[in-house]
Amino acid sequence: KRYTFAAFVDPKLPDYMIVGPQGIVPIVAQPQGGTVFCRSDQWGREKGKWGLIGSLFTPSLKNPSADAQRAAQQVRTFMSTRLGESTMSDLPIQPTVVFIHPQVRLRIDGCSVPVTSAKELRAHLRRAKPVVSAQVIAAVTEAWQSSIN
């Protein structure tokens, strides 16, 4: 009961979210494989052995940092109407970019949001300091469930 995973709760919210002792974590899933880098919020991929031809068949990277910030704002807006501003001011929202491809290699230097792989997501969540009580976690989970019904 420490963590609750939610998927596709509402069209106004990010597709995936986790609520736990560290607050709400909107997940921005990225399917890219290979070597992905972020230097001061500038994202890119190293060209593999197929170079330009290979890049035509892989999904583009765009800007996961901006997507994560947008996801956090969506959660803040959605939850403020359900829990009130006073509760939301005490509830941290930490968006995280998660690369789900099993062969991804990450090189992160100065990214404004946390970035991890799917394999490391559990460890990433457990490293965060617990700042939210079980009652707040239950209230957030209940708000999500009421929006589904």
Structural notes for this entry:
- The protein has 149 residues and is of the alpha/beta class.
- The chain contains five helices and eight strands.
- The strands form two sheets. Strands 1-2-3-6-8 form a five-stranded mixed sheet. A three-stranded mixed sheet has the order 5-4-7, with no helix packed on it.
- A hairpin with a 2-residue loop joins strand 4 and strand 5.
- The chain starts with a strand and ends with a helix.
- The relative contact order is 0.24.
Outline the fold blueprint.
Layout: E1 4-7, E2 16-20, E3 23-30, E4 34-39, E5 42-45, H1 51-55, H2 64-83, H3 85-89, E6 96-99, E7 104-109, E8 115-117, H4 121-127, H5 134-148
Parallel strand pairs: 3-6, 4-7, 6-8
Antiparallel strand pairs: 1-2, 2-3, 4-5
Terminal Cα separation, in Å?
Answer: 21 Å
As residue ranges, the low-confidence spans are none
Strand arrangement within the widest β-sheet reads 1-2-3-6-8
Structural class: alpha/beta
| Strand/helix succession | EEEEEHHHEEEHH
Individual helix count: 5
